[in-house]
Design goal:
The chain is an alpha+beta fold. The protein contains two helices and four strands; from the N terminus they run βαβββα.
Length: 82
């Protein structure tokens, strides 16, 4: 499983979700890549206006996407399914 995390430094929801994502990294093993909405080339990811965005990949294909603020249980459910 790989997660692409797209956020922005000035985004309040992104700041809140950093704590959730860091706890997830402590409890699960997965690859991840962090991209900045304002500075990185994210055009290929079709990101809308709601941040942060978490795109879940399995075998190089997107299997799920979460946008905005979510509880850790939602991430755990996705990781458990794939």
């Amino acid at each position: 499983m790989k997660i692409i995390k797209i956020n922005s430094l000035g985004c309040p929801s992104c700041i809140i979700m950093n704590k959730v994502f860091n706890k997830l990294k402590e409890n699960y093993i997965f690859e991840y890549e962090e991209l900045d909405y304002d500075f990185d080339d994210i055009e290929d990811y079709n990101v809308g206006n709601v941040l942060p965005v978490y795109i879940f990949y399995k075998d190089d294909g997107e299997v799920c996407r979460l946008c905005g603020e979510h509880k850790i249980e939602e991430f755990e459910k996705i990781l458990g399914e794939f």
